[in-house]
Amino acid sequence: MNKDAKYEAGFRKLEEIVGTKTAEAALKAFDDLDPDIGRYMTEVVYGDLYQRPGLDLKTRQLCTVAALTALASFKPHLKTHIDGALTVGATPAEVIEVILQMAAYAGFPAATTGLAAAREVFEKRGLKPR
After folding, report:
1. ∠ at Cα 75 (69, 80), nearest 5°?
2. Any residues with CB less than 8 A from the CB of 64 and at least 6 apart, and which?
3. Minimal CB count within 10 Å: which of 62, 73, 106, 117?
4. Distance between CA atoms of 8 and 23, rounded to whole angstroms?
5. How far apart are alpha carbons 29 and 109 in whole angstroms?
6. Same domain, 83 and 36
7. Are residues 66 and 106 located together in one domain of the fold?
């Protein structure tokens, strides 16, 4: 797959997860510093990794929620990916369980930060957590 095709496939995948407006904003967020970062992210993460057949999109998003919860300092990204997980079929209960599982590996502060992010996303969407 050539770079243009990889970028287009990656953008379509990102758009499927977060919607057009959020995808475009994410890719342009650092244009003032380096316009290539959005292209790299699109081609590598969403044009390569997210195109692999081994996991469905919901599972990939739940894995991303777990990783960002464990990192504990990327709340804006975590909220975006919680929202994306819900968009591609995860339930609020599944999101909460993934975040709670991280308490065992990343600690309670990370898990409670993740739960706070989930609460914000659920409230914005008008969802009940359970």
Report:
1. 95
2. 81, 84, 85
3. 73
4. 12
5. 28
6. no
7. yes
CA 71 and chain centroid, separation: 13
69 falls within a domain: yes
With bands split at pLDDT 50, 70 and 90, how would you rate the model's confidence at 73?
confident
Tens digits of per-residue pLDDT, 91-100?
A: 999 999 999 9
Structure tokens given for 22: 């959020």
Provide the number of structural domains found in the chain.
Answer: 2
Looking at residues 57-61, what average pLDDT do you find? 97
Which residue segment(s) compose the domain that 93 sits in?
57-125
Cβ–Cβ under 8 Å, residues 62 and 90: yes
Q: What is the pLDDT of residue 104?
A: 97
> Is the same domain home to 72 and 110?
yes
Whether residues 23 and 71 fall in one domain: no
